[in-house]
Design brief:
The complex is a heterodimer of chains A (158) and B (89).
Chain A lengths: L2 E5 L5 H9 L7 E8 L11 E8 L1 H18 L2 E9 L1 E3 L4 E9 L2 H18 L2 E7 L4 E3 L4 H8 L8
Helix pairs in contact in A: 2-3, 3-4
Chain B lengths: L6 E5 L1 H7 L3 E4 L8 H8 L4 H6 L7 E4 L2 E3 L10 E5 L6
Parallel strand pairs in B: 1-5
Antiparallel strand pairs in B: 1-2, 3-4, 3-5
The chains are: A alpha+beta (158), B alpha+beta (89).
Chain lengths: 158, 89
């Protein structure tokens, strides 16, 4: 059963791994992805001072649970955790955490990759960048993210 | 005959900013039966609505919390959300 949460407050990756593995002796590996807010701006552009994450509360939790369920369907997981933060975040802040536990590394690592790829393209979150000169702008979706997600479309689980 | 229950329309990210509201309740005309039809009808409500929907290619939609396409049918009392492509993660 997956742990799925949307929250404003920071999370502790160590505590989340401990919760995922508590009392378990069948888990052989945990894949993890910790996403952080980048400050990098395009050349000649002011730095990003803040990122604001908006979401669709009535839909987000279910969309994330559906993505986790799909990972559990494709790989033999012994647990997974998907956390996403919302609200204002600063450069360097952790923003998203994916953990996938399995008996062996291949399933854990592949499921982790799948979870973050689908989370980026199928969960209703939107990022707004606040720039050092006071401007704000919504982040555009990247074709590279769509391409990364689509490579799983017909993938057969090992 | 009872009037159909109104639709709840939600807007997110830059669509919300262009429309000028996060949520509105609308009574659709009986001949508006799909998401695509609804978009065309909503565009006439204000210049902000028109601007929000001007590039249909970059608009995504959910009906009652599930992703839906432009051909999706509308039901009585549905919650319809419009938003740009998602950018979480």
């Amino acid at each position: 059963m997956a742990t799925v949460r949307v929250q404003r407050e920071p999370f502790d990756i160590g505590a989340e791994i401990a919760a995922l593995t508590a009392g378990r002796t069948d888990i052989g590996g945990i894949g993890s992805f910790l996403g952080c807010v980048r400050a990098d701006a395009a050349p000649g552009e002011p730095a990003i001072t803040r990122l604001v994450l908006e979401h669709y509360p009535a839909m987000t939790q279910r969309a994330m649970a559906d993505i986790a369920a799909e990972a559990e369907r494709r790989w033999s997981l012994l647990g997974c955790t998907v956390l996403h933060r919302v609200g204002p975040l600063a450069p360097g802040d952790p923003i998203v955490l994916v953990l996938a536990a399995a008996a062996h590394r291949q399933a854990a690592l592949e499921a982790t990759s799948f979870l973050i790829d689908w989370l980026k393209t199928r969960a209703p979150f939107w990022k707004k960048e606040c720039l050092a000169d006071g401007r704000e702008r919504w982040v555009d979706a990247r074709d590279a993210d769509e391409a990364a997600a689509s490579r799983w479309a017909d993938a057969v689980a090992p | 005959m009872d009037a159909a229950r109104p639709l709840t329309i939600l807007y997110f990210a830059w669509l919300r900013e262009r429309v000028g509201t996060a949520e509105e309740t609308v009574q659709r005309p009986a001949d508006i039966r799909t998401v695509a039809g609804l978009i065309g009808w909503l565009r006439q409500r204000s210049p902000g609505h028109d601007a929000a929907f001007e590039n249909a290619r970059v608009i995504r939609c959910a009906v009652n919390g599930e992703f839906a396409d432009a051909a999706a049918a509308l039901g009585d009392g549905d919650e319809i959300a419009f938003f740009p492509p998602v950018t979480g993660g």
